[in-house]
Design goal:
This protein is an alpha+beta fold and about 250 residues long. It is built from 6 helices and 10 strands; from the N terminus they run αββββββββαααααββ. The protein folds into 2 domains: about 100 residues, N-terminal domain of MutM-like DNA repair proteins, CATH 3.20.190.10; about 120 residues, Helicase, Ruva Protein, domain 3 (Orthogonal Bundle). The radius of gyration is 20 Å and the shape is elongated. Keywords: DNA damage, DNA repair, DNA-binding, Endonuclease, Glycosidase, Hydrolase, Lyase, Multifunctional enzyme, Nuclease. This is Endonuclease.
Length: about 250
Amino acid sequence: MPEGPSILLMKENLQPFVGQKVTEASGNAKFDKEPLIGQTLLEIRTYGKQTYLVFEKAAVRIHLLMFGSYSIDEQTKPDKSLRLALLFSKGGMYFYTCSVKSVELEFLASIDWEADIMSDAWSPENALKKLKANPKMMVCDALMDQNIFSGVGNIIKNEVLFRIKVQPESLVGGLPLKKKKELIAEARNYSFDFLEWKREFVLKKHWLVHTRSVCPICGQKLVKKQTGVGKRRSFYCEKDQKRYSIKEGS
């Protein structure tokens, strides 16, 4: 599943269409696409792993899910996977194997933009409040909670926890305040590192533990385990990442 930084890159690639009018709309997404024809794409907004194409009378929400993709100016996949195609006077955008929904413009005002890890509106203070309100949550689940860290995915989760030396099954309430703040700061820091590495096509070269087998610090074999409520893959070092319990922290 594409994480927040990849969605920002998609936004950048789609940006040339802003200001243009839709001339054709098609695809098998289950909403009426006819009203989009003639409307101008006013802006593109991202919220974590979601993209909003904002038009004059409505917005279209795109979520690439696990296997979604997009292309620009050229349809590259079979029609059966095409959820939405929007053609403009100068080119077009195509979205495949993803979730596409039409939403009212008023819905955008209800989004907690301060939870977007890569947004200028990001609020570390609000993230800290949400963490404190969920003391029994595992940190691996907390990082993947889109209401707290919108845009964080499994890669960012694993790399951030290794950076701050916290075992993924640690309980949020067990982390000292300093470590909670470190978690919040590194979630954002790593997301922007991810973005730059993705732009340079060197992201995988910088992975320290994600899909790796040996700890880069001590050389010990990494643990590969499904952790948390979501049972997502975690890669961690038992020696260099501490497991915090409620009793140990504040």
